[in-house]
Design goal:
This protein has 129 residues and is an all-alpha fold. It has 5 helices and no strands. Helix 4 runs antiparallel to helix 5. The protein starts with a helix and ends with a helix.
Length: 129
């Protein structure tokens, strides 16, 4: 059995004439709409949009924590922010090249960068606390 509520929600976000998609159209890379194998209605495009929104929210939280000198929050936000940025830029980079979906090598690169980011975040957190 599928959950009717979640299918309606995803359909609303994927609706090309909806407010969310009209807003995202201004920030999406032009390569999404060029003549290539990438579809702006694909799951990768939806992941890119979610990563973009998450990145902006995390940047606002990061800046707010820095403004109010909550230094222990910064390393906790740095790790997910760096992962979201990496996934978003990897989808952006693959959109115009041949096969537009992320491949095993891309996932390995994201994993290696995530491990490095985790180590940097933990060292930063230990130094701050």
């Amino acid at each position: 059995m599928t959950n009717k509520r979640s299918s309606k929600r995803s359909a609303r976000l994927s609706n090309p004439s909806g407010f969310y998609r009209k807003l995202m159209r201004y920030v999406e890379p032009e390569v999404f709409y060029e003549d290539n194998y990438f579809s702006p209605n694909s799951a990768s495009a939806d992941i890119w949009r979610a990563c973009w929104l998450t990145e902006k929210v995390a940047l606002v939280i990061f800046a707010t924590a820095a403004w109010f000198t909550l230094w222990w929050v910064l390393p906790l936000i740095f790790f997910p922010l760096s992962l979201v940025w990496t996934v978003r830029t990897s989808i952006d980079g693959k959109a115009g090249n041949g096969y537009p979906e992320l491949e095993v090598g891309d996932a390995m690169g994201i994993g290696c960068f995530g491990t490095l980011s985790l180590i940097i975040s933990l060292i930063w957190l230990v130094l701050v606390i």
